[in-house]
Amino acid sequence: MTNSLRPQGHNRAPLPPAQSSADGVPSPRSPQNQKAQANSRPASSGAKQRDAFFDNAKYLAIVLVAIGHAWEPIKGDSRILEAVYTVVYTFHMPAFIIISGFFSRSFDASPSRLKRLITGVAVPYIVFETAYPLFKRWIDEDPSQEISLLDPWYLTWFLCALFIWRMTTPIWKMVRWPLPLALGLAMAATVTPEIGDDLDLQRVLQFLPYFVLGLCMKPEHFHMVRTRTVRLLSVPVGAVALAFGWWAVPRMNTAWFYHRDAAQELGAPWWSGPVMVLAMFGCSLLLTACFFAWVPRRHMWFTALGAGTLYGYLLHGFFVKAGDYQGWFEAAWLHRPLGEIFVTVCAAVGVTLLCTKPVQRVFRFAMEPRMEWAFKRDAAELAREREKRDGAAAREKVNA
């Protein structure tokens, strides 16, 4: 264990304030003092420093998401793989959503932030909600596959949910008890099958408490779980979770971990829905804390990839679905231990490549479109530009 992972007591550097990115997912930046930040780099540089911990956490979480999707077609009757799959699904999306909530704290529905929300979340949702059904029509030769912006397909549910969560952020910042209220809505959703599939509202509501928790968190909460004691305790906690997952495989419906159905739709009594919301919220927080405890806080070889996690998230689905439609996962050797390891490595390497800068440059038109033509110019921005032009003209006049 490196010294950089050890807690630094009262001398450790604070985490950065919350900011939102252009791509609609958390974009951690540091240092806290913007004036010091401006003095520490050339005036011509528009790049902002990013906090390594959150970039590392985002990258590792998205790798687990891709691995989980790759495991789904091959886990079959493997009780061990099913147990690991269950444990991973308990915390990988909650961890990512908590970070999303933490970096949404500054969202105030101002024109600039609404513009970033539209270009970084709504537009990618429309693009990929159209692209995935077209892809299925082509590769699976399924002309009946419909395109509907009201029914999120496969991975696009997260963009739909993130848009709704961010738009409601001012409400959660205003109410007195945001987390209990969010939990209440999640519990109510699990007993309301009438919600249906429109906008995947079941997932929006059942994952809502994690986003609201992120909104409520402060930097010191992340410091609390990144201590040597928590890291050591997380080892037996993880072992117990894997053992419990192995025990629960034949006894529990895995669909609970997807948070997309009401209790009645899973063939369970209505009262089990609220109970499972609370139980899974507690288990998810415990394993998420263990995950955060082991996320490196220093710059690693993969730290820069944290800025491209939305690319990896949305693009890896095409490869997973192509393999599913074309029968790539049906080979018998993939369902043996060495085959499962091979699939795991391929998923990790594949999503890593999809987070790289070359891929970002190619697909930026869909993920981070500028769309200046679609928005009115902000009056304050126009005034600043006029002031800058007038100042430049005055200097030229003096020099002349």
Structural commentary:
- InterPro entries: Acyl_transf_3_dom, Nod_factor_acetyltransferase.
- This protein is mainly alpha-helical and 400 residues long.
- It has one domain.
- The chain has 16 helices and no strands.
- Helix 4 runs parallel beside helix 13, helix 7 runs antiparallel to helix 9 and helix 7 packs across helix 12.
- The protein is globular.
- The relative contact order is 0.15.
The number of domains is 1
Structural classification: mainly alpha
Q: Ranges with pLDDT <50 over ≥5 residues? A: 1-24, 26-47
Chain-averaged pLDDT? 84
- List the secondary-structure elements in sequence, H or E: HHHHHHHHHHHHHHHH
Rg (CA only): 23 Å
Major beta-sheet overview: none
Q: How many helical elements?
A: 16
Distance between the termini: 63 Å
What is the percentage of strand-forming residues?
under 5%
Number of strands: 0
The helicity comes to 55-70%
Oligomer: single chain
Shape: globular
Q: In summary, what is this structure?
A:
By secondary structure, the chain is an all-alpha fold. Helix content is 60%, strand content 0%. It has one domain (3-399).
